[in-house]
Amino acid sequence: MRIDILSIFPEMLAGPLAASLLGKAQADGRLEVVLTNIRDFASDKHCSVDDSPYGGGAGMVMKCEPIFAAVESLRTQNSLKRVILMSPRGERLTQQKVRELAEVPDLVVLCARYEGVDERISDSLVTEEISIGDYVLSGGEVPALVLVEAISRMIPGVIGDWKSVETDSFYAGCLGPPQYTRPPVFRDMAVPDVLREGNHAAIRRWRKKEALRATLARRADLLVDLDIEEKKLLAEIEHETPISEREK
Ligand code: SAH
Description:
Elements: E1 2-7, H1 11-18, H2 20-27, E2 32-37, E3 50-51, E4 61-62, H3 64-73, E5 83-92, H4 95-101, E6 106-110, H5 119-124, E7 128-131, H6 141-153, H7 162-166, E8 185-186, E9 189-190, H8 200-218, H9 228-240
Helix pairs in contact: 1-6, 8-9
The structure holds S-adenosyl-L-homocysteine.
Residues 86-89, 111-113, 115-116, 131-133, 135-137, 139-140, 143 line the site of S-adenosyl-L-homocysteine.
């Protein structure tokens, strides 16, 4: 899969993209991330990428010409079906959306700055806008990294053990189960016996139940489309949990 990221601060992206699993995914040829500096496509003598807003008001707006030119320069290399603008006005990113995007062979991700982009870029160049949450950052670079890292985890082979992806929060709908490592007792806090007894069926059931318990307490909105076992476990949890302790 290839992802082109367009930004006026590609140096903000290069370091994080080279580290850890993202760096390895690229070294292994599973993911190709290409950084393009939008400023390289500015045509005026000042290399400007922004200008003051029509109608007045605070801040600057990213201009059409360099962004159209930068995206169009990719047309020969990339089918350009999907051009994503990172934007607080966009659709909120979810694991489901990440899984869908991971199936797309080529993505272009546009990072804005200042007050955002000229609306004509949203209207006729961008195919979708994605937000990473209801707060405002100073630029789309960190949101683009969030998107690329989330997508990379869905590419087969990037995470060594696919089982760990399947039990992650949101993948199958629920939050993930609690995890423990050595020592077995730390400051009077013991690891649950079931995890140390080696009964794999019991461990699987315990994990599923505790994942449901965490989801019920923190994100009951995620408890939809449950299978028979999950419904049974949830009934057990509800029986064990006083109404006063459940999410209100
Ligand atoms: N004036 C804009 C905010 C601009 S913030 C507004 O009110 O909506 C500058 C840029 O940072 C945005 O254009 C976008 O590319 C990026 N950005 C900021 N917050 C973001 C978020 N929550 N999700 C995705 N991108 C974001």
